[in-house]
Amino acid sequence: MDKDFHVYILASKMGGTIYIGVTSDLVGRVYIHREALVPGFTSKYGVHRLVWFEQRGTAESAITREKQLKKWNRAWKIEPIEKTNASWKDLYPTLFT
Tens place of pLDDT for every residue, the chain, 97 residues? Predict the structure, then answer.
């Protein structure tokens, strides 16, 4: 059975605090962030809105991409969000359609 790996960006609001992560269960992982089920950065700063994600073929590829994005300056991190989701709409509900 093949797994899907995703790199994702969460935001507190448009132009707000952002968080970059990687997971093999995008729906479940974002749910954990949204519901603040685990204490940490996203629960502390209210970073619950899924504003960007991309699928990667392997865990290694996803982790490499996550590390790349985390090294970028803020303007570069915002660019992929605004290219595909200019209004910073919460994409979480779209995962179920």
Answer: 568 999 999 999 999 999 999 999 999 999 999 999 999 999 999 999 999 999 999 999 999 999 999 999 999 999 999 999 999 999 999 999 7
Domains delineated in the chain? 5-96 (3.40.1440.10)
Give the integer Cα–Cα distance in Å for 15 and 17: 7
| Residues forming a β-bridge with 6 | 23, 55
Q: How far is CA 22 from CA 70, 85, 87, in A?
A: 11, 19, 23
